[in-house]
């Protein structure tokens, strides 16, 4: 996110979120800087937001949620640029934009 996307304390929020998701060695530093800027309750809200998004992403990956063909086709350029197709969750969608379909309930989880 470039320069925090013009959100108040956006750069600090992005640094904290990235450090939290990656469990970087600078997480304590990022948290401390963020707390100085937005207070303890702000850090709690930021941590809850990071946790919610990380949890949703893990659920989506685990259940194999697929991109629909329109979104897959429209996003091919920036997925390639950002390297998103290299992530494990990308296996749920065929690269040509046609989602794989489960043949039965159990195959959703394979």
**Number of H- or I-type helical stretches:** 4
Straight-line N-to-C gap: 33 Å
The helix/strand order is HHHH
For the sheet with most strands, the description reads: none
- Count of discrete structural domains: 2
Q: What percent of residues are in strands?
A: under 5%
Tell the overall outline.
elongated
Helix content: 55-70%
Number of separate strands: 0
Structural class: mainly alpha
Radius of gyration: 17 Å
What value does the average pLDDT take?
Answer: 82
Flag low-confidence runs. none
Characterize this entry briefly.
By secondary structure, the chain is mainly α. The protein has helices spanning 10-22, 27-63, 69-74, 76-82.
Notes on the protein architecture:
The structure is a single chain. By secondary structure, the chain is mainly α. 57% of the residues lie in helices and 0% in strands. It has helices spanning 10-22, 27-63, 69-74, 76-82. Helix 1 packs across helix 2 (27-63). The radius of gyration is 17 Å and the shape is elongated. The mean pLDDT is 82.
């Amino acid at each position: 996110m470039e320069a925090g996307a013009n959100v108040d304390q956006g750069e600090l929020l992005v640094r904290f979120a990235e450090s939290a998701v990656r469990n970087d060695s600078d997480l304590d530093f990022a948290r401390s800087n963020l707390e100085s800027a937005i207070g303890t309750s702000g850090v709690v809200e930021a941590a809850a937001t990071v946790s919610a998004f990380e949890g949703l992403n893990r659920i989506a990956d685990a259940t194999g949620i697929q991109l629909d063909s329109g979104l897959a086709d429209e996003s091919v350029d920036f997925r390639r640029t950002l390297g998103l197709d290299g992530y494990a969750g990308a296996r749920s969608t065929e690269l040509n934009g046609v989602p794989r379909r489960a043949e039965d309930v159990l195959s959703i989880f394979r």
